[in-house]
């Protein structure tokens, strides 16, 4: 005996299952929890497809067994409960997203406060060193304190880019341009023919700071030692991408650096710092003093 109610029960139940599968897919993107919701939505969707194929088979045969009416009614109740349960998940995820946004806002405020404290401390330290430099009595003391001021400046610049309100991402070109301008101003080397060619590349914040320290030492050493008695002093600062790595080079046209200095047991602090950074994990370093001083480093890019 045929049940005329059965196809309507099955059809409505199948529609509810498809609606549940669609809602589960929406929750995938709303919640961001892909792993649990993808199999759930796939299971509900396949369940609806299987029952739809059964309904189509019954329609084609024109047979709707009355004994199937009770099980299909139970399946309809399950489909209703499934959809209602998923609907109840929507405000729960909305509350979760709101709570997550509030937590992020609190952390951003804490980061900003920390930034201001660090910024003030760095600027205070830089001011104290500058004051000490002004009161230094010997050239050695003045030179040491000026170098220290510029090293602090390398930290101040990258810190400003990392947490500055107007900055969304770090710019290697902007960082190095500002850094070099500060060194030129500090040493008043405005007659140097300065060539700057810095590409934009994705490197880690730590490596950018390390590269800034290398640049600071290389350029500072050129201004201090390379251009005395040179009629047309030139300095080239370059950074380019080659074979998935960032290469940076600093070259002047001074008398160069001797191998004795490079191989000394206790080289100068600047050379020692460059050599230490150049031996970091993933870095390579080449220093040549044949035709002027040439310092070239290579470091890994951030993988996309």
Walkthrough of the structure:
- It is a single chain.
- The protein has eight helices and five strands, in the order αααααβαββααββ.
- The chain is an alpha+beta fold and 304 residues long.
- It folds into two domains: 6-104; 136-300, Histidine kinase-like ATPase, C-terminal domain (Heat Shock Protein 90, 2-Layer Sandwich).
- The protein has a five-stranded mixed β-sheet with strand order 1-2-3-5-4, covered by helices on one side.
- Strand 1, helix 6 (205-226) and strand 2 (234-242) form a beta-alpha-beta unit.
User: Tell me, what is the CATH class of the largest domain?
Assistant: Alpha Beta
CATH architecture term of the largest domain: 2-Layer Sandwich
Number of domains: 2
Q: Which percent bin holds the helix content?
A: 55-70%
Spatial order of strands in the largest sheet: 1-2-3-5-4
Strand content: 5-15%
The dominant shape is elongated
Low-confidence stretches: none
As a whole number of angstroms, the C-alpha radius of gyration is: 34 Å
User: Number of helical segments?
Assistant: 8
CATH topology of the largest domain, by name, is: Heat Shock Protein 90
According to DSSP, the number of beta strands is 5
Distance between the termini: 65 Å
Q: Whole-number average pLDDT? A: 81
How are helices and strands ordered from N to C? HHHHHEHEEHHEE
**What is the CATH superfamily of the largest domain?**
Histidine kinase-like ATPase, C-terminal domain
Biggest sheet character = 5 strands, mixed
